[in-house]
Amino acid sequence: xxxxxxxxxxxxxxxxxxxxxxxxxxxxxxxxxxxxxxxxxxxxxxxxxxxxxxxxxxxxxxxxxxxxxxxxxxxxxxxxxxxx
Length: 84
Hints:
Elements: H1 2-26, E1 42-44, E2 51-53, E3 58-62, E4 65-69, H2 72-83
Antiparallel strand pairs: 1-2, 3-4
């Protein structure tokens, strides 16, 4: 009787572990083109040329293209440069 309960418990744990692994695989981060994006990848700000990790960068879609900035001030300065 204990063996059956132990086997059922182990199967339940295995099910939840596989489900979590499958969800992580399916929810990987993708950019607009469907390419996987590493959130710790360093991106360069086009205004001040500082490098920041993608996960904390301020992303703006300007003119149909995605740009990453180190701050909101750099994003605003870039938008001013593009419009005027």
